[in-house]
Amino acid sequence: xxxxxxxxxxxxxxxxxxxxxxxxxxxxxxxxxxxxxxxxxxxxxxxxxxxxxxxxxxxxxxxxxxxxxxxxxxxxxxxxxxxxxxxxxxxxxxxxxxxxxxxxxxxxxxxxxxxxxxxxxxxxxxxxxxxxxxxxxxxxxxxxxxxxxxxxxxxxxxxxxxxxxxxxxxxxxxxxxxxxxxxxxxxxxxxxxxxxxxxxxxxxxxxxxxxxxxxxxxxxxxxxxxxxxxx
Length: 231
Known about the structure:
Largest sheet: 8 strands, mixed, barrel
Radius of gyration: 18 Å
Strand order of the largest sheet: 1-2-4-5-6-7-8-9
Order of helices and strands: HHEHEEHEHEHEHEEE
């Protein structure tokens, strides 16, 4: 009954705000755990303003891409995000055709265990021109390497359609953040549980002057499930 009342409150609040002409976001009215992910594309970030936003609990920062790209804002952003009270994780944009050892070493130079609150996240958005079989072979080898390096399985980030076409039924042991920019919650073809949903790439938040990716946890999932285990 309590959950039904909360849901009705959210719905009525959204209707009221919409009628007044406001751009309504889920975090304005609902009780999910919310966060953002960002990279150099967001430019200068005013972390004090984000830290004051009680609805934003976590942030994933882009650390690296492929074998040699390092996000130029990562080092500053992770330091300031921590200073302003956010739980922080780091992600690597995976390039399937790039040497896997180089990719891991690139990520390890930035994603230092002592600076992580949340498990590493691997951003999977392209097959790099490979066949599905070759792409999976490359990805799964890399995920094993990441797990051995950090002594825990990474979080996987990908889009719903990309997942359904290339990863369904193949990653049962991994936690997922799924991107789908819709008002309806995502459902995967294999019904894999979704830990977090990136629901917009055009979010707005005080402290960032450009669009930002926003996500929220699904169901009863919590940050505790992706806490970085320091061995």
